[in-house]
Amino acid sequence: MKIITEPSIYLLAKQEVDFNQLQQFLDDHEVSTWETDTSVAGEILAEVAGRVCYMSFAKPRPGGNEAYLEHIKQVGHGSVLEHAVYNILITGVSRSFTHELVRHRAGVGYSQLSQRYVDESTADFVVPAIIQRLQGRAFEIWSNACGAAQTAYCELVEVLLESEIELEYQQYVGTNMPLGMDVQSKDAWIKSLSPEKKTELRKAVRSAARSVLPTATETKIFVTANARALRHIIEMRGNKAAELEIRRFAEKLVVLLKQVSPNLFGDYTFGEQGVETPYRKV
Ligand SMILES: Cc1cc2nc3c(=O)[nH]c(=O)nc-3n(C[C@H](O)[C@H](O)[C@H](O)COP(=O)(O)OP(=O)(O)OC[C@H]3O[C@@H](n4cnc5c(N)ncnc54)[C@H](O)[C@@H]3O)c2cc1C
Asked: How close is the Cα of 104 to the center of ligand 1, in Å?
């Protein structure tokens, strides 16, 4: 049983601007002098989207993309930030964490590891920070409970699979025998089951057995979100009122996003309240 203490965040993709198309648009609208000073596609796209609203390409205010997006945040014109999109794979998090994360619906897409399809007999567990810090007796109680739950899960899978197979086999015998058909031995019948049927049986069994697994069970979730939605998640979950695991994630995400998109996320700082910004919920 592996114990995980920290989430991993993988930023899997970056947007790409088609500069030929952008130039074509600028030329067609006699504003070909406009140019950008950032190489971050999401930042360029958010600015272009914002400038389209007022067709303000001809005489941009000084300060470039950074000043432009700062102004957008200041005035709360957050919808233009929806054009910057991030594909993020998160691993090493608990199912409590994802239960909280998926409450964020607007501007976010999710794909999470299925406990119905995936065998959890070797799953890892995410230790809550306070238990990790205390170690000693608290850690012992926690890790014993996770271990016992995993053992129960494995036993349940075995017992349930056996009884489901027996039930299906009896149905097969009951249908075929009265018709005078040749009835296969149980072993031969199991071997003859289609891959789809085997998957269906395992899925039914794992669906029931997972009910004994703790919310500390490690999971993986693929998140696609726009910058506006991510800002809201960061502000809600990076706050000191938020639960620790998701708060640590939000902090880690801020550090990453400040690096890859400084003009969209550079206003975030770490303060007494957690992650802070002068521009909340743009
Ligand atoms: C510290 C903390 C404690 C919490 N405790 C609890 C709890 O005890 N119980 C509980 O159930 N939840 C709890 N939550 C979850 C919380 O209530 C929200 O569900 C979660 O934070 C998602 O945020 P959101 O509603 O802003 O949704 P998001 O999907 O992130 O939406 C972003 C914004 O879009 C707008 N929006 C989205 N959907 C709609 C809609 N359908 N209609 C109108 N506007 C919409 C809203 O302005 C919303 O703020 C907690 C959250 C935090 C941060």
From this structure: 6
CA distance 7 to 93: 5
- Run means of pLDDT, 10 residues per run, the chain, 282 residues: 95 97 97 96 98 95 96 96 98 98 98 96 96 89 97 98 94 90 92 94 96 98 98 98 97 98 98 97 96
Does residue 227 have its Cβ closer than 6 Å to ligand 1? no
Q: Tell which residue, 141, 128, 149, has the closest CA to residue 1.
A: 149
CA distance 133 to 111: 31
Compute how many other C-beta atoms are within 10 angstroms of the C-beta atom of residue 134: 12
Q: List the structure tokens of 225.
A: 């979100």
User: What percentage of residues in the chain have a pLDDT greater than 70?
Assistant: 100
Angle between helices 195-209 and 136-176 (to 10 degrees): 140
* 37, two tokens: 């000073």
- The full DSSP string for 90-121 is EEEEEHHHHHHHTT--TTEEEEE--TTTS--T
Ligand 1 centroid, distance to 222 Cα (angstroms): 20
242 within ligand 1 shell (Cβ under 6 A): yes
> Which residues form the catalytic set?
237
Cα separation of 126 and 215, whole Å? 9
Report pLDDT digits (tens) over 128-185.
999 988 779 999 999 999 999 999 999 999 999 999 999 999 999 999 888 888 899 9
Q: What is the pTM assigned to this prediction? A: 0.94
Residue type, 16: E
Indicate whether residue 241 lines ligand 1 (CB < 6 A): yes
